[in-house]
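Structure ticket #2291
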Amino acid sequence: MAWAQVCASCCRQLAEAVLPTATGVETEERTLLLGPASARQSPGPLIPGVPGTPNPGFSCPSNGFTSSDPLSEGYRKEGLSTGSSSTWGPGATAASWPTAVLLADLEQDARQGECALPRAVPAGLAPLKPEASRSSSPGPTSCMGASVVAEVGPRDTTSAGPEPETWLPRCHGSPETPEPRRGQPPTAPELPSVMLLNGDCPESLKREEGTAEPPRENGLDETEPGEETTGQEVIVIQDTGFSVKILAPGIEPFSLQVSPQEMVQEIHQVLMDREDTCHRTCFSLHLDGNMLDHFSELRSVEGLQEGSVLRVVEEPYTVREARIHVRHVRDLLKSLDPSDAFNGVDCNSLSFLSVFTDGDLGDSGKRKKGLEMDPIDCTPPEYILPGSRERPLCPLQPQNRDWKPLQCLKVLTMSGWNPPPGNRKMHGDLMYLFVITAEDRQVSITASTRGFYLNQSTAYHFNPKPASPRFLSHSLVELLNQISPTFKKNFAVLQKKRVQRHPFERIATPFQVYSWTAPQAEHAMDCVRAEDAYTSRLGYEEHIPGQTRDWNEELQTTRELPRKNLPERLLRERAIFKVHSDFTAAATRGAMAVIDGNVMAINPSEETKMQMFIWNNIFFSLGFDVRDHYKDFGGDVAAYVAPTNDLNGVRTYNAVDVEGLYTLGTVVVDYRGYRVTAQSIIPGILERDQEQSVIYGSIDFGKTVVSHPRYLELLERTSRPLKILRHRVLNDHDEEVELCSSVECKGIIGNDGRHYILDLLRTFPPDLNFLPVPGEGLPEECTRAGFPRAHRHKLCCLRQELVDAFVEHRYLLFMKLAALQLMQQKASKLESPTSLENGGLPSPESKPEDPPGPEAGSEEEGSNASGLAKVKELAETIASDDGTDPRSREVIRNACKAVGSISNTAFDVRFNPDIFSPGVRFPESCQEEVRDQKQLLKDAAAFLLSCQIPGLVKDCTDHVVLPMDGATLAEVMRQRGINMRYLGKVLDLVLRSPARDQLDHIYKIGIGELITRSAKHIFKTYLQGVELSGLSAAISHFLNCFLSSYPNPVAHLPADELVSKKRNRRRRNRPPGAADNTAWAVMTPQELWKNICQEAKNYFDFSLECETVDQAVETYGLQKITLLREISLKTGIQILLKEYSFDSRHKPAFTEEDVLNIFPVVKHVNPKASDAFHFFQSGQAKVQQGFLKEGCELINEALNLFNNVYGAMHVEICACLRLLARLHYIMGDYAEALSNQQKAVLMSERVMGIEHPNTIQEYMHLALYCFASSQLSTALNLLYRARYLTLLVFGEDHPEMALLDNNIGLVLHGVMECDLSLRFLENALAVSTKYHGPKSLKVALSHHLVARVYESKAEFRSALQHEKEGYTIYKTQLGEDHEKTKESSEYLKCLTQQAVALQRTMNEIYRNGSSANIPPLKFTAPSMASVLEQLNVINGILFIPLSQKDLENLKAEVARRHQLQEASKNREKAEEPMATEPEPVGAPEDVASQPPAAKDPSSPSFQG
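Resolution: structure written out below.
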């Protein structure tokens, strides 16, 4: 896990003080400070440090966060290593280690002296699975604020009143010691008794070694707003909570914990959520007779203190309040109904965890103390067993007991008598409701200012007089309780159930998540839904009196909020996040309305493709080439991709966050085959012509170009982090114009005086591999791969991740060249650094090489360890030269020239985004610069092919990244800067790879992704020709052609249901581009698959060898259910949850009734919580140094801050929770681990999807913690669920399946279900052998686990056979003397003795018949402790108890390290020639994958 990345070598260095240096470790080995997985792959967020700071967590590259995917980043080689080279010499003997063993990787080349330690004491440290957050800023979840929230669940402030944007985080669990300020001398830190190790040295430690790093520019060390965050600031927001007493009418007084930063309104929310007060909405709170203002903070209320009494006073209703009340009652009645989640409305989404845990995890840690050994039913359903071919769909959404809704009322709806006539208004009538109770009584209800009462109206007769019983109730619920006994009973039960549900099952997610399957649901009457659909929702929902929201003003104002200190930044980030998620929701709704034809165009007379729309202050345009704007770039195809490129540009500029520069709110929505771009509107833009408005950039792709000094100044600030070169171009009058962006980027000053930039579609440089330019040749590695290839459009850009990786790669090269020359000169060494701009830390992809050669990537894969270590030396060598020596200046100049730096005195690589732009001309004076820039672009294109793609394939081979479906594969590619159009190239390389078998899963996922993406391209144009009435028929026909084995499906034309009297004339308001055509109906499977193969060839340059779906499945080993899931997620289709017979040749698989819905696919900006992220990093750094407790506190702190910015639900909070759970587990607090992990699972289901690979991971972690808490049946249920989801998402043949099956097998062995256990363990053995090679340590561990089960079954021959296999692997990999080999040999002896004893007994029986005197055979079930120990091992968790003496030594050593200056660096290191680089070592295996012998483990003791 990212937080345990202290690499073995660092620990060895720590330990050098404690222990005598092992003989036989050569100096060279000692200097390897980093394993190959360096900063960028490091499984959690990057932790850039600053020279000499003890707390490196507060600096972060200002150009945004590196994103990492939960699966991609070294997510779990089953133990700790993300691939690092171990640095233990063979001479380290047990004697040299008093009582602690530091773990290093085991599976290394023994010849290189890189074998691991012999065993000294039982156990080992706690290396954790490298595990990554989904986006590198992981986030904690709601430890649920103050205890108020703990009681009632997080506040959902959507029901009334504006979002209170001002409460600050309620922090509890603050660190006892504030973080040291930057630059403050660190005191020797306290070490806890468990040290954590991982095969990755974090940046922080690297820096703490004390190397002086040359000052960096280019945004890599510019002070972030977050940098001054110190302990003092944190204390500001740690006001302690207090409790108040609440007096509400009709119930007992109760006390409530509140925090001073809360608003009065939040107490309202709490009361509206509590079971006994939930039916009240219209009330105020009074303190000593004075009414409290809704929006004041509690600390500003005079006299409010511990023990104050707040009285709930019922207020008179208004029409608005009455509507809110009815809505709230309807929400309470629907609170357990999942239909909103299936329909994808109001940010509801599904969660099924409670079905598998019976919702009993919370208190279970305390309740089920006794080992749960009552017989439990462990038999999984048939389809989960290894080898099953069946892949059912229904178990994906198991039936939840709570969903059988309790009927409280039959109908609750607005009456047709609304609105009240004038005379009744003057009696206080606000509106009328019509209710049919469960007993079938029909009543009419008046909502008046004083409350609700029955009136005498009927359906046809209006009589507003009160009916008997004349009962006036302030709450509608109280009135209904009076008139309907069934309502009273069921409503009470419903509220009990509602309150018992985990809050995370109920809170809205920040962005809508759609489900691709849904059960058949009956459609119930719902007044609120009906009202929302047919009245303008703008009025009610947005809570802003009398107007629709001015999105642009909100988006820009939140950016202008102050950001000087932590509270201000939190408030700003929270406001930005809130407005963005609201804007995304509104834009999505608007885009759907536009495509469905429900919005009037602003240019209605033009043809449909050209129309533009304004709705709710958002501007909508369609992805078609209007007025031949993109004629030279690929027409409609270019117009379709431009919005996503533009969105990426908006993302980037937002992340740089320059004050004074504004971007538009942008959301891209794909719906029903159309692409809609939604943008906020620049004030005044609609009144003027574009020509008048644009004062910077060009509106015609570079013919006329203008510039503006203020824009140049603002954009100059973004040029360094974005690596954009300031350059000059010629306009149509041949005048030079200076720009600091691409020419398409337009600058417009709005009527509000703000400087906006828009059309950011070419923020990044063009990708020359897909842009053939006459007369320009590409480097050899590109031509060899068949580039350049003409793409469909000319807007192909490199990704930002690629630009960053390329610049880091060049920086490493620069350092090497400069240092080599300096060393040769042996220049005088004076202590003053040269300036180095723009250098990033070399990334994992940075392969040191002399100017990039063709095979650079593939040949030097193994050299990273030395490459990264060298950069430090090089930095020193250069730093020690003060630049006064002309020779050394010459050296720097040469190095700059060689790497393409734009400056002669420092490293600074930037790109000119206008190079190769059709229509852009450059002045004569710049020709040399243009030539250099062209070369740089060619090098970048070559770098992608020679380094990034081979690097990706190597990571997949080593299982550093483990994608499981198309989305996770795409994420892994994008992190390395590889666009999806290179997918064909990636697959070609996989096919040619020597380790082709170990990449089988990648090949399958890649082929599936290629097929579904090609099908999506076809589907998009197919759908555009379909009328709304034929949508379900068309989609089901397409799915039949795509997936069904039925040879000739026939489409049902939509004229089936009704026959119209006369053909209606052409409809006026048709959706864009729709003709009344039925061309879609003639598609056949043969034609579709031919088109898919053609599309794969044209777009991805990959030849598919299949003409039908069955051939594809056969040839590539795909699953139809997986293809169905992928195509549904990509296109937004929702299908009925039922079993589909894809393979039937007699009837098509899908009918039109099976297509339930089509959802939008939405792309938007994701604003980040930067301060929370810094806290998180500090917490990680602490944990890496071994301070679990302090780390835990910091991460809890981060959790509060994340909650504060994002609310309770967010991907990053999910990652943070998982981390906390892991920490608590290691510290032995199982109950806390369970509770945090349960939240992580719920959140992952809700935010990422119920079958997302990340959710599968979370289920597995939760199962482990359940087992540790003795909840065996729950653990098994969770593991079975994870296995089912994996089968559905990918299939059985995945490296992850080996881990899952080992887990299941171990748990089953624990309950002595040996035969079942063997089925899973033997499958795990087969999968491990395939993906890790038969000689890997993982396979040895697998053999050992199988042997243990055979031993329990008393089948000693099989047990011996497997243990011998394991022993042979250990012997060849680790040598005779290694502790693992010895353990294995001991176990073999023990098995042999048991086998002999058994044989004796059998002989005795044969000889003496029934009178034989038989000693009883001992078949014992393995102890739970030993099963748990094995589970920890395979999941990568090891505990090593350290003695007090080691602790003292380690503490002293840490303190000594802190004070070391680089003066005391090894001199030999500097002289060591650069060229020697170790050859690549074999795929590193985990330390964790070795079977501890069958011994009784004592549980590790934790002190401190």
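Closing remark: The chain has a mean pLDDT of 78.
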